[in-house]
Amino acid sequence: MTITLTVLGVLDKLETLVCAGDTPLGKPSPQPFILAAERLQIEPAKCLVYEDGIPGVQGAIAAGMGAVRIDQI
């Protein structure tokens, strides 16, 4: 993941990164999204998640966050 983000030139623009394995359950579980909010020290309700699939949107909503499907814009 970090290699791709580095090649794209965006890794240094991210405040935190939650990857597979950082939580016991992945998408569509809300755990990865809640961990990201905790790391950012922000309430989940103040987060807006940009996702490219249904499991990510489901996880974000379950975490109490807003979600945008970027593959449907």
Describe this entry's structure for a reader.
This protein has 73 residues and is of the alpha+beta class. The chain contains three helices and two strands; from the N terminus they run ααβαβ. It has helices at 2-8, 31-40, 54-62; strands at residues 48-51, 66-69. It has a two-stranded parallel ribbon with strand order 1-2. α3 (54-62) links the parallel β1 (48-51) and β2. The mean pLDDT is 96.
Task: Give a short overview.
This protein is an alpha+beta fold. The chain has helices at residues 2-8, 31-40, 54-62; strands at 48-51, 66-69. The mean pLDDT is 96.
- Uncertain ranges: none
Sheet with the most strands? 2 strands, parallel
What is the share of helical residues? 25-40%
The succession of helices and strands, N to C, reads HHEHE
Please tally the β strands and state the result: 2
Shape: globular
Strand content: 5-15%
* Major beta sheet, strand line-up: 1-2
